[in-house]
Design brief:
It is built from 21 helices and 18 strands. It has 550 residues and is α/β, with parallel strands linked by helices. The strands form three sheets. A six-stranded parallel beta sheet has the order 2-1-3-4-6-5, with helices on both faces. Helix 3 (48-62) crosses helix 15 and helix 10 runs antiparallel to helix 12 (336-350). It comes from Exilibacterium tricleocarpae.
Length: 550
């Protein structure tokens, strides 16, 4: 068989289901081999960046990698933004690129560049196949690395002449392994420290959205009552309706949930990623005692110096804590600050639920209505922009992986291609992507992909005619902002041009009904909402005046 045939067989052995991408001349052999597979589905996209975002969301939702594919040169460079986003947001991914013949890579040559060197800073591993006999080892290592905590992207480059070579090898069998777990001695120390605390609190990070970890975390909170503030990417690790859910933390300015952290005498960080919410925002000067529990040791930072580090499988560590709670009886803590935070933040979330504004819609109202029409298992994807801050604060979740926010690399253009992938993984769920008008137009060409695949999804665009988040931040710092305005298309006509359903909502009172209608329409729907971003400055002012009750 050819080397490209062997690579496809290896991907099949690893259980790869999807590859998203744009083919080119230099990966033609691979594409012909892939066409023969009855186990892997290739999704043709309109841009390589969209392909990478689709693979990222597949990885985040399933825990298994999908592939994103591009050719050499510009095909590879187009992939890199989505690849970096996936890697920093801990989503497993395989990045597959073609390359010119190995006989011309040592010199100046058409479209040739050091692709593996480019991908090294944004992947867990980047390599080139120089010998077809190595393909089974390379593919096994690549998939294993992509899945291993913390998950991420792995890049494999296949030169066009290597792809054609004959090879007499077979895929390596897949062998599952268990992650290392903490020992009893460190868990005894951790549990003893929790028992000593008067006002402990949990900051839950990205690692807590793993199903097993979320289950054990909920059990721990039900047994102890300890409250949980979630980073943007940990939403849904505990149910929003639980008394111990203290909502979301991570805005640059101090918000109500931060009051619970201020009042705590022990901060338990679980699966915490520093890229999400830097400790200088909640532990400046290392005033807090920190118990770090994660798959990996703590990152070194002057504001993050844990008293105790528990390193190993997070779900197992939480199970060990639960066993100790069962053995040693109930724990006693002072939860008054946490009760005050939940009460005050709940009022914030409900404040504009009955708005009847016309012309524009407040962000709070748009998200309240979205939450009302979305079921517990339905999936919301946020693009990057001012709307992301509102989603992080106001859209709360019942289940993990039901609100997907890019918060490590934070790339715009994420939500539309991501929603396409989510609809492929869960065709029976409601899928809602929320974009600003700026972010939506960055990958709007994937509207054609969604229509071609007849995806069941809704994209809600918050229209303000400019880069709202940049304006928000410039205004906060300088009292004004630079010229950030741009024009927009006729949204309803744009939707019609791509075969989508289109809706323009200018009355707050009608938004919920329109969203419900969009979820029942055949194929993709676009819902455009002129948004009232005057609320941005009002929120900043309120947070600046915040006084913690205790």
């Amino acid at each position: 068989m050819k080397a490209s045939d062997l690579m496809v067989q290896c991907l099949e052995e690893e259980g790869i289901e999807y590859i998203f991408g744009v083919p080119g001349e230099e990966n033609a052999d691979f594409m012909i081999s892939l066409e023969q597979s009855d186990k892997i589905r290739f999704i043709l996209t309109r841009h390589e960046q969209g392909a990478a975002f689709m693979a990222e969301i597949y990885g985040r939702l399933t825990g298994n990698p999908a592939g994103c594919l591009g050719t050499l040169g510009p095909g590879a460079t187009n992939l890199i933004t989505g690849v970096a986003d996936s890697n920093m947001d801990r989503a497993p991914m395989l990045v597959l690129t073609g390359q010119g013949a190995s006989t011309r890579l040592h010199k100046e040559s058409h479209q040739v560049m050091d692709v593996t060197g480019m991908f090294e800073p944004v992947t867990k591993w980047a390599t080139t196949v120089w010998h077809p006999e190595n393909i089974p080892e390379i593919m096994r290592k690549a998939v294993r690395l992509a899945r291993t905590e913390k998950p991420g992207a792995v890049h494999i480059e296949l030169p066009e002449d290597i792809a054609k070579l004959e090879v007499d090898k077979r895929p390596l069998p897949v062998q599952k392994f268990r992650r290392p777990v903490p020992d009893d001695k460190i868990m005894d120390r951790a549990f003893a420290r929790i028992r000593q605390a008067r006002r402990p609190i949990i900051i839950a990070g990205n690692g807590c959205i793993r199903r097993r970890a979320s289950k054990q975390l909920r059990l721990f909170c039900e047994k102890t009552g300890i409250g949980v503030v979630s980073t943007f990417m940990a939403k849904g690790c505990v149910d929003m309706d639980a008394d111990y859910c203290l909502y979301t933390i991570g805005l640059g300015s101090k918000d109500i949930p931060a009051c619970a952290v201020d009042a705590a005498d022990l901060v338990i960080t679980l699966g915490y990623d520093m890229v999400e919410y830097h400790p200088h925002l909640w532990n400046a000067g290392r005033e807090k005692d920190v118990l770090h529990i994660d798959f990996l040791p703590a990152e070194i930072d002057e504001n993050y110096h844990p008293e105790i580090e528990v390193v190993g499988d997070l779900a197992h560590a939480l199970w060990m804590l639960n066993e100790r709670v069962e053995r040693d009886g109930p724990l006693s803590f002072d939860f008054e600050p946490q009760h005050a935070v939940r009460r005050d933040m709940t009022r914030e979330l409900e404040a504009h639920k009955d708005d009847t504004t016309t012309g524009t819609v407040r962000p709070q109202k748009a998200l309240w209505d979205a939450r009302q029409v979305m079921g517990p298992q339905d999936i919301l994807l946020s693009d990057v922009g001012a709307h992301k801050m509102w989603i992080a604060r106001h859209y709360q979740c019942h289940e993990p992986n039901t609100c997907l926010i890019p918060n490590g690399f934070c790339s715009m253009g994420f939500a539309l291609p991501g929603a396409i992938a989510a609809s492929l993984v869960y065709p029976d769920r409601n899928i809602l992507g929320i974009c600003g008008d700026g972010g939506f137009m960055m990958n709007s060409q994937e509207m054609e992909t969604a229509r071609r695949l007849n995806c069941k999804l809704t994209i809600m665009v918050w229209e303000d005619g400019g880069y709202g988040l940049i304006g928000w931040k410039q205004t906060n710092e300088f009292g004004r902002h630079t010229d950030l305005a741009f024009g927009n298309p006729d949204w309803v006509k744009l939707a019609a041009a791509f075969g989508w359903h289109g809706h323009l909502v200018t009355e707050a009172a009608s938004l919920r009904e329109v969203l419900s209608q969009s979820f029942n329409e055949e194929g993709p729907s676009l819902v455009v909402v002129p948004i009232d971003y005057e609320e941005n400055v009002k929120l900043t002012k309120r947070m600046g005046e915040l006084t913690c009750p205790i």
